[in-house]
Design goal:
The complex is a heterodimer of chains A (425) and B (414). With 425 residues, chain A is of the alpha+beta class. Chain A contains 17 helices and 13 strands. Chain A has two domains: 2-224, Cytochrome Bc1 Complex, Chain A, domain 1, CATH 3.30.830; 241-424, Metalloenzyme, LuxS/M16 peptidase-like (Cytochrome Bc1 Complex, Chain A, domain 1), CATH 3.30.830. In chain A, the strands form three sheets. Chain A has a six-stranded mixed sheet, with helices on both faces. Chain A starts with a strand and ends with a strand. In chain B, helix 1 packs across helix 7 and helix 3 (100-112) packs parallel to helix 8 (199-207). The termini of chain B are far apart. The chains are: A alpha+beta (425), B alpha+beta (414). At the A-B interface, helix 2, strand 5, helix 4, strand 11 and helix 14 of A face helix 2, helix 4, helix 10 and helix 13 of B.
Chain lengths: 425, 414
């Protein structure tokens, strides 16, 4: 059931009885901006630290435990060209509890509290303790990023890929320099702007009566706070033409045990009538699972790496390869990766590889529907970018018509655009 | 109350346990076969030791069969497959939409028919060595090994689950097969399957696929632990220091009692240093911890310990604070009846959350079998815990002799 609470404020309820929990998620969307990513992440953390009614981290945690371990989450993530600031609460379905009739209402109340009834010091600032501690935590997390070499490698690759887009140069989880200078009053000002202007998607999944939950939400502080119209948001897709002509490359040295190799490729945009599933099938045969060319040739046959895989981002038409290996083997690995691309371009893959890829695409889609998050993400895409979604019937039709030529053609139109090497000395 | 989960169980005459839970509305079928054998099982009865990493090596190499790899067979029948090795268990699993019985036969083939050759062992060394190198760059992993070396000095649990570059060289086709035969016995394994399958058919398939190994006594030695280490520190090329405070719990509890003890210890830790505790708030306010702070209670076979860890700018204060607050043990003051009720509710919620996930149900069910605990009886187990039991356990655990520490200090110059 879909309901428009105000312009660009959408409530979607998906009634399903297969799960033992109920999840309510609220996503605030606006275009990614280099000046806002840090603020949004800190805002997520400060708001989920405490609220006016639960004025300390401890009291909020006590309340979550009381509600049978309700899980509150606050986060930011990239979604197309948007920064998605999200809050969710997932809790045990009261049907499985003895005598807890107000479980749904109580959880809506907690979620409303953290977003719309923040813990304030005065009319211009968040509570000092909440702000200071969350700022310190976030700084500490940003410091620790450098200790995760896989993440460093991915971030550096995407800096190269997005070199023309300043808004994507700052990671979604923020930047230490910006954080350092961020003041409490500035964050609160920003909060007011978010609450007033961001596009809002509310999703509920679980065994709930749609009419009943809609009324509970509309009557709650949450519903009462979302009556104003919101700004339209516009989808913008990236363009990598300059990198196709001149790929970006970077190499760093560090004192680490294992070197990392990351490569990005762009597949040209698809013509009308082309199979939407072809790039995903190509990725699967190339490096997407343990039957792929990369896994079998780089890892199993040549024992060069423990981890080597590729993944495909459909909205950006980007295929990336990640590998962890010995520094001395990097050149050989690059050569082997290129050989697998040539293998794909020359259509040397077998019919059984195509069948396997089709089977995996179908299986992943079906098994995905065994998770509560699947329904929330699907609903978000249906609202903001419906044309990329295939219903079950269209998906099967696309899968059936997918053939060797489609897959080979994707490989033929694939271009290396960036490469990052982190060499362990 | 809504519909509860149902479980079907059968123990075969050879001791192999089969458990199945149907899950309404789910499309997938998930199955895991588990051996009660992990990285710590390297001590032999004659006093000698197997090379560290041998359980993990077996896990990798059981996929190799004459002329094919088992993962190819799973893929052919529409399943994805995986495996993992922990300190005390090794598990093999598949997840599929279709052909559950064919995939079950493949799973049985996977762990029942080893094919170790010097050639395939040699090629695997390079892959596992890369896996070891990957973990050596992860400070949290390094810290865990170092604190385990303090908790159990010289014990196999302190070694990397995958072994080391040196021990990999000592692993060969012969010791792999000998170790496999000793530990992959039907009475030392269980099979859990979650999803819409016919249990009788599952049992029939397992019965038609006899083990080559025999039911019998394990040849590994009984564990005895030396005195706990005094604590230590070391440096690593990282941006942020990490600290771990360790508590060893030497207990005679086994099986059901050990699982119960694990729940009790979790309740104690949540009350004293969990996110809803005064101490957590105090340590945060004093900038001793950040939100990476956590504790982990492990109670598996002969091992029972707690590791409290996190990033910190103040490793000494981190250790001093925890040492003092746990030794003071103000549990009686803070674990009120209300708090105890909240903690129990939290645990019941966690149990329901896990029931959304076929893999969580299957893995937990397979493992709990080795502790004589019925997965569906976990709520009753939780209910049976009394406030007094929790308070008494804390008095026993929080003794100075049970404590140790490790600080992994940031050293950018290394």
């Amino acid at each position: 059931m879909k309901e428009i609470l105000a312009k660009n404020v959408v409530l979607n309820v998906n009634q399903l009885d297969k799960f033992r929990t109920i999840k309510i998620q609220i996503d605030f969307l606006r275009p990614l901006s280099k000046d806002e990513s840090t603020k949004r992440r800190l805002l997520a953390n400060v708001l989920s630290n405490s609220s006016k009614k639960y004025p300390s981290f401890k009291s909020l945690n006590d309340r979550e435990m009381e509600l049978y371990g309700a899980e509150i989450n606050a986060y930011t993530r990239s979604l197309l060209n948007f920064n998605d600031l999200g809050f969710s609460v997932e809790f045990a379905d009261p049907k499985f509890l003895i005598g807890d009739k107000s479980q749904i209402q109580d959880n809506i109340e907690v979620l409303s509290e953290i977003i719309f009834n923040p813990n304030l010091k005065n009319t211009n600032e968040f509570d000092d303790t909440a702000f200071t501690i969350e700022k310190r935590n976030m700084m500490s997390n940003l410091d620790a990023v450098g200790d995760n070499k896989d993440l460093v490698s991915v971030l550096e690759l995407f800096k190269l890929v997005n070199h023309n887009n300043p808004n994507k140069q700052i990671p979604i989880f923020g930047d230490a320099t910006q954080l350092d200078s961020l003041e409490n009053s500035a964050l609160y000002e920003y909060y007011k702007d978010v609450i007033k202007n961001d596009m809002i998607l509310i999703n509920v999944v679980g065994d709930v009566d749609p009419t009943e939950i809609s009324k509970l939400i509309r009557d709650s502080l949450l519903g009462q706070s979302l009556k104003s119209e919101r700004t339209d948001i516009k989808i913008q897709l990236p363009n990598f033409d300059d990198l196709v002509k001149s790929p970006a490359e970077k190499l760093d040295h560090e004192s680490i045990n294992q070197s990392r190799l990351s490569i990005a490729y762009v597949t040209e945009k698809l013509d009308k009538g082309f199979s939407h599933l072809a790039p995903q099938a190509m990725n699967l045969i190339f490096g997407g699972d343990d039957q792929s060319q990369l896994f079998l040739q780089v890892r199993e046959r040549n024992s060069l790496a423990y981890s080597v895989s590729s993944s495909y981002q459909a909205t950006d038409h980007l295929l990336t390869v990640q590998s962890g290996l010995d520094a001395k083997d990097i050149d050989q690995a690059i050569d082997l990766i290129q050989k697998q691309i040539d293998f794909m371009k020359n259509g040397k893959f077998t019919d059984s590889q195509i069948e396997h890829a089709k089977k995996v695409l179908f299986t992943r889609r079906e098994i995905g529907s065994d998770s509560i998050q699947h329904y929330i993400m699907r609903s978000i895409w249906e609202t903001i970018y419906p044309k990329t979604l295939l219903d079950d019937k269209s998906f099967r039709a696309e899968l059936n018509k997918l053939d060797r030529n489609n897959i080979q053609s994707v490989a033929e139109h694939m271009h290396r655009i960036a490469q990052y090497e982190l060499i362990g000395d | 109350m809504a519909e509860k989960l149902q479980k079907f169980t059968k123990k075969l005459p050879n001791g192999f346990e089969i458990e199945m839970v149907p899950l309404k509305g789910y499309k997938q079928i998930y199955s895991v076969a588990m051996a009660n054998f992990g990285s710590v099982n390297t001590k032999l009865a004659d006093g000698s030791r197997l090379p560290a990493g041998i359980a993990h090596f077996i896990e990798h190499k059981l996929f190799a069969k004459p002329g094919y790899d088992v993962s190819e067979k799973f893929a052919e029948y529409g399943a994805n497959s995986n495996a993992y090795t922990s300190y005390t268990k090794t598990a093999y699993l598949f997840q599929t939409l279709e052909n559950p019985y064919d995939n079950l036969k493949i799973l049985l083939d996977l762990f029942q028919h080893p094919h170790f050759t010097e050639e395939n062992v040699a090629s695997e060394r390079g892959i596992i060595n890369q896996e070891i190198q990957m973990y050596l760059d992860m400070p949290e992993w390094v810290l865990e090994q170092r604190i385990l070396e303090q908790l159990y000095p010289g014990d196999p649990i302190a070694a990397d689950i995958a072994g080391s570059t040196e021990t990999l060289q000592q692993i060969n086709a012969k010791n792999l097969l000998d170790t496999y035969r000793t530990n992959y016995r039907p009475d030392n394994m269980s099979l859990a399957i979650v999803g819409d399958v016919d249990f009788d058919k599952v049992v029939d398939i397992v019965e038609q696929s006899p083990f080559e190994t025999d039911k019998g006594c394990p040849k590994t030695a009984e564990n005895s632990f030396v005195e706990i280490g005094p604590g230590a520190e070391g440096k690593m090329n990282i941006s942020q220091s990490r600290s771990a405070f360790g508590i060893r719990v030497d207990t005679n509890s086994r099986g059901y009692d050990l699982v119960k003890l694990q729940y009790i210890l979790n309740m104690i830790m949540e009350t004293l240093i969990g996110e809803s505790s005064e101490n957590y708030q105090d340590m945060t306010n004093k900038d001793i911890i950040d939100d990476s702070f956590s504790y982990n209670v492990v109670a598996e076979n002969d091992y029972c310990f707690i590791i409290i860890s996190g990033s910190t700018n103040k490793p000494e204060e981190f250790q001093d604070y925890l040492h003092k607050c746990l030794l003071d043990n103000k549990l009686k003051d803070v674990l009120t009846k209300d708090k105890f009720e909240r903690i129990k509710r939290d645990a019941i919620g966690a149990y329901l959350f896990a029931q959304n996930s076929p893999d969580a149900i299957a893995n937990q069910m397979a493992e709990l079998y080795f502790y004589d605990v019925d997965y569906l009886q976990l709520v009753q187990l939780l209910d049976s815990i009394s406030l007094d039991e929790v308070l008494n356990s804390a008095d026993e655990v929080f003794q100075n002799d049970n404590f140790t520490y490790y600080n992994l200090l940031a050293d950018g110059k290394d």
